Structures are given as structure tokens and as C-alpha cells.
Amino acid sequence: MGNALQVMTSGESHGPGLTAIVQGLPAGMPVDIGCIDDQLKRRQGGYGRGARQQLESDRVQIISGVRLGRTLGSPVTLQVVNKDFANWGDRMSVAGVAVPPAPIVEARPGHADFAGMLKYGTGDLRDILERSSARNTAALVAAGGLCRQFLRHLGIEVLSHVVVLGGVRAGRPQAADFGRVIAAAEASPVRCADPVASVRMVAAIDAAAERGDTLGGVFEVIATGCPPGLGSHIQWDTRLDSRLAAAIMGIQAIKGVEIGMGFGVAEIAGSQVHDELFHDGGSGYSRSTNHAGGVEGGMTNGEPVVVRGAMKPISTMKSPLRSVNMATLEASVAHFERSDVCAVPAAGVIGEAMVCIVLAEACLAKFGGDGMQECLRNFEGYVADIAGRGYVC
Length: 393
Ligand code: EPS
Hints:
Layout: E1 6-11, E2 17-23, H1 33-44, H2 52-55, E3 60-64, E4 66-67, E5 70-71, E6 76-81, H3 89-92, H4 113-120, H5 126-132, H6 137-153, E7 157-165, E8 168-169, H7 178-187, H8 195-211, E9 217-224, H9 240-249, E10 254-259, H10 270-273, E11 277-280, E12 284-287, E13 295-296, E14 299-300, E15 305-311, E16 322-324, E17 331-333, H11 344-367, H12 372-386
Antiparallel strand pairs: 1-2, 2-6, 3-6, 4-5, 7-8, 7-9, 9-15, 10-15, 11-12, 13-14, 16-17
The chain binds ligand EPS.
Ligand EPS binds at residues 13, 50, 52, 133-135, 137-138, 314, 316, 338-340, 343.
């Protein structure tokens, strides 16, 4: 999308902190730090999270790009401090130490450990696991929290709920019932809108914890208020569905992404898949279904954007799987320090952040503007132009 928005993160799980740099937001956008902190808090929650979340209370500090509560148009740098660094000074010291910590050499099947150790030629897989840890998603959520504030000016809201956890499937909520779905999800310990499934999911987490095992699941992100025409059909990498899939797959432990009906489209006829189009002089265009998940031909079509991510069970397990000591090449079991039993509820919040980043990028590519007023003028002009207009050559 022409690099309309760039987001880069840095930081190790037990290092001094995490950083996100967001470049491309227009100048003059009001920034509410509390809104970002709210998202960080949501990310830390959810039943099944590990001891780390008791140690941290993530808060963002903005150290560039914002003045007097408004963006300057320059890169915004967001920082989240790792309180736990204080306990890891010996193992995460930036300076060299006289007695190096004992290396970790038992790769966790499913984690970045094995390939990372070979690729980077390190004898200590802490060199890999520190960066591959899902702790980095705090930086992404901070960046997403900023993008969310931009999207709100355009009337776009991004929400999520958990639809599968540990094999327990939630009943499908009514598509149009977003307010109620999200309120119920926020009240659930596993962020699931179906109260009966929610209780079963909690029980599944308890049972997995008992076994020293972990659980995955599926979250669904819904973006409402997107105008038609975000993204483009022109190139593979400007298609909005391509950007959304890449962003969701960019979250640790995600192994699958669906948009709208997703893999279901392969199983039924076109007449049951495609969303018929209607027009009414008063209310404009409408659809009676949204199997496309709000994206057709790589562009939003004005319906809610619906994206699902499938998260595998976390690969750090209290009852570890068999592995190999990569120093001696002898049979061993995977390394275990501490872990979450299930982080699917948090993954939904992270999925929201990624969707916010992608939609903000798409909006900036379409509406541009160095300043917020210019951007909003372009947006409002476009929305007014497409409303109630018949297209003739
Ligand atoms: C996480 C922090 C980590 C893990 C988890 C996510 O904390 P620690 O490693 O200190 O216990 O709880 O990371 C992983 C699941 C992983 O595979 O790396 C967080 O803040 O989200």
C-alpha cells in the first residue's frame, strides 16, 4: 500500500523493555495514552495466563512524535517497560559478564528455538527465545492502540471474541449483534460471548493445567464502519485480505487465518457463498449475508470486516515433550521455565491491534493527508461522493 504506515517493534521478553515505532500517522491527531494502556491491560488478561502477567502491569510511555496531546507527523515511539527485567539482570545484562549464565540447549518443539539456534549459530537458545516470545505483542498492541484512535476518527471500531478454545466451540452469535457479542465477551474470563461455552472453556483450561499441558483456539476480529474501497485489487500485496492474513499470521503461534466464510467457501456452491447486493433509495446498498467477511476482490465492500485467527497451543509446556540437547545431541526433554496454559483470549486482543494497524494503513493509503484535517476532508469527500451515486460512463 505504498508504505503509507510503517510499524516496527524491538525488545526482548526479559530485557529492559519493548519499543514500537509508528510512522505515517497524520499530524494533529489527538492521542489518549489511557486508551493505549486500556488495550495493554486487556492483552494481559484472560483465564489461563501465566505468572508473568502478575509481575507486569504494562503501561505505555511515548517518547517521540507527540506534543501537547497531538501527533506531530513524525515517528511516534512507544515504550513498555519490562518490570521483570529487574529479576533477570544476570541473564539479560547488556554488558558482558565475567561468568556467563548456563546456556539453554533443549529446544521446545513448536517454538522458534530449534531453527533459530541453527540459523543464528548460537549455543544458547535464550538468544532466540527472548525475541520470539509473545511478550513482544505488548509493543504491537501499543502500536495498534494508536492506530485504533486514528480509525475512530473515521468511524471504524475493531472488536474481538473467542469462538473456539481447547476444542470447545461457542454458539454463533447473530452477525448484526456486535454490541451484545462484545459486551458478553468482555465480561467472560475467556473473552467468549457464549456463556455456556465460556464455562466449558474455563474447565478445559483447568484440566489442561492439571496435566501440565496447553490449549489453543480461534478468535474472531470484527471491524465495523469501514467504507467500501479500502485495499485494492491491483497487486497481491495491496489486497486488504492479503494484508490482514499476513498481519494475523505475524502474531506468535498463529497457524491459520480465515476471512468471512474462510475455508467453508470450498465446500458449497457459489449461489450459497456470494452475498447478494441490494439498493434502497433511503438506506443505500445492503446485503443480507456477509460470507465474504467484508472483503471482495481485495477491497472492503462496506460490510463488517471479519477475520479469524487459529492459535496453536503454547509450546512451552510444564509436562515437556521429547527433544534433543543441542549441545551434546543426546535425547532430552524440552526446556521449561514458566508459561501460560492458554493465551487465546489475549490473542484476540492482539488480533484487534493487528487489524487496526492494517486498516489504518489502508485508510492512509486511500485518504492520505499530512495533517488530520486534510485526511478527514479527503475521507468525508469520498464518503459523500459514493453515497447514493449511480455510476455511468
Ligand atoms: C508473555 C510473556 C511470557 C509468556 C508468554 C507471553 O512471559 P515469561 O516467558 O516471562 O513467562 O508468558 O510467552 C509465550 C507464550 C512464549 O511462547 O514465549 C506475554 O507477555 O504475552
